[in-house]
UniProtKB/TrEMBL annotation:
Name of the protein in question: PRD15 protein
A Pfam cross-reference name: PRDM2_PR
GO MF annotation terms: zinc ion binding
UniProt keyword annotation of Cell membrane present: no
GO-annotated cellular components: nucleus
Signal peptide extent: none
GO biological process, one term: regulation of gene expression
Source species of the chain: Menura novaehollandiae
Amino acid sequence: CEDCGKSLLGECKLHGPLIRAKDRVIPSRARLTLPHYLTLRVLELRAGNQQILGVFAKKVIQKRTQFGPYVGQLSTKLTCYDESRLVLQVLKDGGKYFLDTPNEDCGNWMMFVRLARNQEEQTLVAYQHCGEVYFTTVKPIEPHTELKVWYAADYAKFMEASAVFIKEESDVCPLPPIAKEPVDPWICSSCGSTFATFALLESHQCIHKDRV
């Protein structure tokens, strides 16, 4: 105690306790990377104050808006699994690695995007390009709508997952990629050609650029 000059194990009985000033809470890296037109909402609070978060639009987001790349640690083993999030892998130097995000300082805001349970609620498609994973909007997203993602057809094959989810009554059932034609094909704005996946459209547009 600076008032009585004594070293005490606890608070000073004569002058009382110290006034404790707490440090300001700093947002995690993932939260700081959130674009200004997106917001995080707490959807559920689990045991141990674990928050289940969702990413929501604050304004209209146009179709074919690209987000990314997804930030995570390259790992041969997934250390943090959440059934509400997509498992993501990339091909690097001939090896297949998980994009692992054990905490919010190891990733960006894309780690909060939940997976889509059916086509109706899907707003984003995930795909791999040059060893990175990106999310692209598959339709306009209205304000207060949650961003939800599923694999693009080619990336689904890479991840050994179903390309499409549909809802039948109360169940959510996966369909194999060959069982159903794409509902909303990707259309080239230059020549009008249609493609089953965004990756195919992207490579096709590269051809247009080469011609120019």
